[in-house]
Amino acid sequence: MTNWNQYHPVFEYEQVDSRVLQHSAWVGHRQFSYDLVRSCQPRLLVELGTHWGASFFSMCQGIKDGNLSTLCYAVDTWLGDPHSGGYNVEVFHNVSKITSSLYSRHTTLLRTTFDEALAQFQDDSIDLLHIDGFHQYEAVKHDYESWLPKVAPDGIMLFHDISVHGFGFGVWKLWAELKEQYPALQFEHSGGLGILFPKGVHASCKQLIERWEELKSSYESR
Ligand SMILES: C[S@@+](CC[C@H](N)C(=O)[O-])C[C@H]1O[C@@H](n2cnc3c(N)ncnc32)[C@H](O)[C@@H]1O
């Protein structure tokens, strides 16, 4: 069984621009996501919803430090949505600048809708898919259903904001349905993060599951 390691990374992006973290509800999951990519070493990683880049760059940092050959795609219109609000083009320029200065190897920004990006990926190809777009129930359900065929055997799906009730958020509702159907783990802090194994459990995550209570509390306090 693969050992689950907990690293002590330096997240270089925060030294370049502190706004990446200021604007994100995702910050409490960056240590876990870093360890996840180091452990599961995905060949193809796709993020749906990047905004300022806190989640994407945290995973890119793991890929860079692990000298992995992962192909990483960030998909976003970089226009905003009814929950994140509209924002100006400066955000995309900032994400591009950080990508090219720190994480350019194997990283692609797709400035388009999730639906339009679908055709660029083959079925059963994505080893790690992070869904963090518009959080209304129907929207996230659509993202899940349309991208599930793209997930590889033993691929991992991450869902942000599974703990947020109110504000018209509905990820919690979809998550309640999915975790009944497939092996799943979840964090409640920092908006909540769901970890779903819809097509089998990746070998790198077997120890994560076995040691979950211990590892979960360690990530919640970091
Ligand atoms: C919650 S933010 C992402 C936060 C980011 N993961 C982080 O770490 O801070 C959601 C993003 O998804 C994008 N988005 C929402 N629905 C989309 C869609 N259907 N196609 C493309 N982008 C979308 C928005 O533009 C917004 O930037």
Number of folding domains? 1
* Gyration radius over CA: 16 Å
CATH fold call: Rossmann fold
Total helices: the number is 10
User: Would you tell me the overall average pLDDT?
Assistant: 95
Query: Could you state the CATH homologous superfamily?
Result: Vaccinia Virus protein VP39
For the record, the CATH class is: Alpha Beta
Strand content: 15-25%
Net shape: globular
Poorly predicted regions are none
Largest sheet: 7 strands, mixed
Residues in helices, as a percent range: 25-40%
Structural class estimated from helices and strands: alpha/beta
Q: How many β strands by DSSP?
A: 9
* Largest sheet strand order: 5-2-1-6-7-9-8
Q: What is the CATH architecture descriptor?
A: 3-Layer(aba) Sandwich
* Series of secondary-structure elements, N-terminal to C-terminal: HHHEHEEEHEHEHEHEEHH
The hetero compounds bound to this protein are:
S-adenosylmethionine
Chain-wise SSE layout:
Layout lengths: L11 H5 L2 H4 L7 H11 L3 E5 L5 H12 L5 E5 L4 E2 L3 E2 L3 H13 L4 E4 L3 H4 L8 E6 L5 H11 L3 E10 L10 H11 L2 E4 L5 E4 L9 H5 L1 H9 L2
Parallel strand pairs: 1-2, 1-6, 2-5, 6-7
Antiparallel strand pairs: 3-4, 7-9, 8-9
The site of S-adenosylmethionine has 20 residues, from helix 4 and strand 3.
From the structure above, extract its key features:
222 residues; alpha/beta; Rossmann fold; seven-stranded mixed sheet; binds S-adenosylmethionine
